[in-house]
Structures are given as structure tokens and as C-alpha cells.
Specification:
507 residues, alpha/beta, Cytochrome p450, TIM Barrel, 22 helices
Length: 507
């Protein structure tokens, strides 16, 4: 039977095809050959060329392996590693992190397999698969162990080429997100119809091939398909980016490093020197400021660009401490891009490690996406080492999720180091959003939302407390005063002494 090849290059059509369960990866031949002895067996045993329940089981094996790997540790390991070409350094680093013996020998064999992985085996690649299996499997008769090792090998093989492509696609003189949109490491994907389906009104018969041009699709939409799309988003996205960053030699500031650890950065927000100092004394690695707290403490409205002087003064006060801090600067207190860049320079000179810039406005509208992106780009050009956390208020204003992803993609491509979506807490939406991001996602803590552990599992890298602490402090003050007035005992809170507060201020 003759089958047709269908090509799609429109963004919506490519997304639709990637999400269509009838379109599956081009499956290998049912007979994979003797267990553990060939590329054909490997292709028949891994999640990459599978679908349905066995794909879910095999993907879970890969995800379990990746869960053991800290992206920041991988980044540092590949920087410190010995020389060699990019694929070899990547595989050797991963093999070491996974606890494999003789990682150099593993890397040598994996690079041979990688050359034949997508196109079919040859004698050298088959022999390399057999060597890897003999090296990694204790009992060749254990089918479950063989499947686990097959997917470990598949993880290494895909990392070998994919990370090298990430490095090649990345350009050091433009933001990483923009480079990957313009030159995605995976330019095309191929699917086969397991049954009759339709994409963009076109009938696709069972057995027809579907070629998806990701490169062309990305040119028509701001949200790139760098790591695929649900339900088959690349599970090693964070690890691949960390390895690529390390291979490119990109420096991380101490504050930026906090966004690339296994657990999300929990960022408490202070409103004056004492509140920041007392939080730092409790071991929080970094402190944020809250624009509401700063504004309310001075009798001014929040979000109205009224507290630029108070914000700079607070930054200069906090800069005298020994802790890292980032400043909530509303929308930069101006729509003049040069003024926003100058504010960022003053905050950095005062000691700030980061700045939070929001696109929400006091009248309940959003700043034009082009204007906010221009502010971000100007700040990064003026102060490259300042961590820019680009906030969008789409969820607080009830905008559609599509606008959120579009805005964040634009802010990433303008140079943002992280992105922030207060009001977002639905796990499905969070997972959908992180799948397309290159930079760390920051969310606002909600007592009724996911826990820190759940947010970490969803890929969230920073959790801010916003104005919560300031509002709780007001509540505690009111409760204490009214309790004494009304003859009730005040709430039993551990209260710092006069001398302790004095010591904190003196620091």
C-alpha cells in the first residue's frame, strides 16, 4: 500500500498534530532482534519510539532517572569535566551523575550508538549496544532490568545529540530563548498515523507519515516548540539547558544559582531594613521587597509609580547587609525605557542582585507587551548581572492562558532571567506553562494552592510570598493591641527583644 507524507509548518497545525494521540512516533520493527544485542532491540525497547501504556511505563523510567540528577550539579560538572567534543562531555557527565562505572567507556559507546539511533543500526552501533548492556546489566535474563537499562541508554543517546544541538543553536550575543526560537535544536519531527485522523481539515489515513516543521512554525509564533508540546514534552528540558549553559560557559551569579537548584527558592518579601534583616537571620538565602509594604509604610498607593525614592532608599539600606536581595520595582516607575534602565543601574549599585518588573497597571490594564519587553532588554543591556524577573499580571486580570504564555515568551526573548505569574496555581496550567519556558518560573505562594514540593515537581523554581508577611505583620499588630485593650492575652508569638532588634539594625 502506498502511503502519503503530509507536511505541516503552521504553528497551530504543528501543535495540533503533536497533541493528536492518533499520530505516534515512527515505530521500529516489531522484532527488535536478540535482547540487548542491537540498535533494533534498543529502538523497540525505549519510550522515544513507543506509544500507549508501554510508552508511559518507559517514560516513567526515564523521569525517575532524571529526578536523581540536579541540573545545577550537572552544569558545574560539565564545566569542570575534562576536554573532548560536546557529545562526549555531555554523556560522560550524565554517566558519572547516574553512578555508572567507567563513564568514559560508556560515553565512547553511546556516541557510536547515537549515529545510528534514528536511522537504524549498523554493525558498529549494534556492537556498541551489546557492550553497553553487558556493562550495565547484571542479569541479561531479567527482562525488567533490560528495559530499564535500554531506557537509560536511550536517555544518554538523546542527550548526546540534543544537547550538542542546543549548544550549536545557542548564540552567546542574544538571549538564549530568542536563539532557540530562531534556531531550534530539533527542526523537524516525524509522526505516523496509527489510525485515520484529521489535522487542519486534512484527512490522514492510517500509515501515512506526518512531517512537522518546528523551525517554520516557530517563525510565526512567539512561543517556541523547542522541547515539543504536551503530552510529549521533553522530560529532560531543565537538564539539557543546564548542560548547554555549562558548555557555553555562561556565568551564574550567586542569586541566579538559587533558581537552578533541586528545591524552589522560597523568597520572603520584606518592607524595611529590620524585616529583611530578621528574615536573613533565619537562614533564607535571599530576600525580596514588597512594593505594597514599601508604599503602605510611607502612606502612598502601590502600583502608581509613587515610591521610586523610597524603593531606592530601601535598596541602599539593604545593601549594607550581607544577604542577597531583589527589589520589587512595580513597572520600573516609568514608561520611559531609558529611565527604567537608569533605575536598574541605581538599584544594582546599591547592592541589589535582582529586580522584579511587572506589566500590570493601576487601572487594571496590561502594558503593551512590546513596551515591557523593551524595558527588560534595556535593563539587561545596562546592567547584565542584574537578575530580571519579568512579571505578567494576566492571571490576576483574568486574561487567557494563551496570552500568559505569549507574553512570557516575549519577555524571555527580550532577555529576562526569570518570569513571574502571580495568581497562577492550577497544576495543569503550571505544567503546560513550564513546558515551553527556557527561564525559571516564579509563582506567588497561595495557602490554598499547591505545596512547595508539588510546585517543585511541576518545574517551578521560585516561590514568592509577596505582601503576605507585611499583611500578617499588620494583623499581628492589630490583634496584640486590641487584645490588650479588651483584656485578652495577646497571641503567643515568639517576639524578638529590644536588644535583638537593635543588633539586627546594627548589622
Amino acid at each position: 500500500m502506498t502511503h502519503t507524507t503530509h507536511r505541516f509548518d503552521r504553528y497551530a497545525d504543528v501543535r495540533s498534530a503533536l497533541a493528536d494521540p492518533a499520530l505516534v512516533p515512527e515505530l521500529p520493527a516489531p522484532d527488535g532482534g536478540p535482547a540487548g544485542a542491537s540498535v533494533a532491540w534498543l529502538r523497540a525497547s525505549v519510550a522515544r519510539f513507543d506509544s500507549g501504556e508501554s510508552h508511559r511505563r518507559r517514560r516513567a523510567l526515564v523521569e525517575a532517572e532524571l529526578a536523581l540528577l540536579d541540573p545545577l550539579a550537572l552544569r558545574e560538572a560539565v564545566i569542570a569535566g575534562a576536554g573532548g567534543d560536546v557529545p562526549t562531555r555531555v554523556v560522560r557527565t550524565l554517566a558519572e551523575a547516574l553512578g555508572m562505572h567507567e563513564p568514559a567507556a560508556v560515553a565512547e559507546a553511546v556516541t557510536v550508538v547515537a549515529g545510528a539511533y534514528f536511522e537504524g543500526g549498523d554493525a558498529a552501533a549494534d556492537e556498541a549496544v551489546a557492550r553497553l548492556v553487558a556493562h550495565l546489566v547484571q542479569d541479561p535474563a531479567d527482562a525488567a532490568a533490560l528495559e530499564t537499562v535500554a531506557n537509560r541508554i536511550g536517555l544518554l543517546v538523546q542527550a548526546c545529540d540534543a544537547t550538542a544541538a542546543l549548544v550549536a543553536a545557542d548564540s552567546g550575543d542574544v538571549p538564549q530563548a530568542r536563539a532557540l526560537r530562531e534556531n531550534p535544536p530539533v527542526r523537524t519531527m516525524r509522526r505516523v498515523a496509527a489510525r485515520v485522523t484529521h489535522v487542519a481539515g486534512r484527512r490522514i489515513a492510517e500509515g501515512d507519515a506526518v512531517l512537522l516543521d518546528l523551525s517554520a512554525a516557530n517563525r510565526t509564533h512567539p512561543v517556541p516548540l523547542t522541547f515539543g508540546a504536551p503530552p510529549r514534552v521533553c522530560p529532560g528540558r531543565a537538564h539539557a539547558l543546564a548542560l548547554a549553559d555549562g558548555l557555553r560557559g555562561r556565568p551564574l551569579t550567586p542569586f541566579a544559582r538559587l533558581h537552578h537548584q533541586a528545591a524552589p527558592l522560597l523568597l520572603p518579601n520584606a518592607w524595611d531594613h529590620a524585616s529583611a534583616a530578621v528574615l536573613a537571620a533565619q537562614g533564607f538565602p535571599a530576600i525580596g521587597t514588597t512594593s505594597l509594604g514599601v508604599a503602605a509604610a510611607t502612606g502612598l498607593p502601590d502600583g502608581a509609580a509613587a515610591t521610586v525614592g523610597a524603593t531606592i532608599a530601601l535598596a541602599r539600606s539593604l545593601g549594607q547587609g550581607s544577604f542577597l536581595f531583589t527589589v520589587d520595582a512595580e513597572g520600573g516607575f516609568s514608561d520611559d525605557v531609558a529611565e527604567v534602565a537608569e533605575l536598574a543601574r541605581k538599584l544594582y549599585e546599591a547592592g541589589a542582585a535582582g529586580i522584579n518588573l511587572e506589566d500590570g497597571r493601576p487601572d487594571g490594564t496590561l502594558a503593551p507587551v512590546e513596551l515591557h519587553a523593551a524595558k527588560i532588554a534595556a535593563v539587561k543591556a545596562a546592567v547584565p548581572a542584574l537578575f530580571v524577573n519579568a512579571r505578567t499580571d494576566t492571571h490576576w486580570l483574568g486574561r487567557q492562558a494563551e496570552e500568559t504564555s505569549t507574553r512570557l515568551a516575549s519577555y524571555e526573548q527580550a532577555g529576562a532571567d526569570g518570569v513571574f505569574v502571580p495568581g497562577l496555581s492550577d497544576p495543569v496550567e503550571v505544567a503546560e506553562l513550564t513546558a515551553g519556558l527556557v527561564t525559571p518560573l516564579n509563582l506567588l505562594y497561595s495557602p490554598t494552592g499547591p505545596t512547595l514540593a508539588e510546585l517543585a515537581a511541576l518545574g517551578v523554581r521560585r516561590v514568592s510570598l509577596g505582601s503576605l508577611l507585611y499583611r500578617r505583620a499588620l494583623a499581628a499588630a492589630v490583634d496584640t493591641a486590641t487584645a490588650i485593650r479588651d483584656g485578652r492575652p495577646p497571641a503567643d508569638l515568639e517576639t524578638p527583644s529590644y536588644a535583638e532588634v537593635q543588633r539586627l539594625a546594627a548589622r
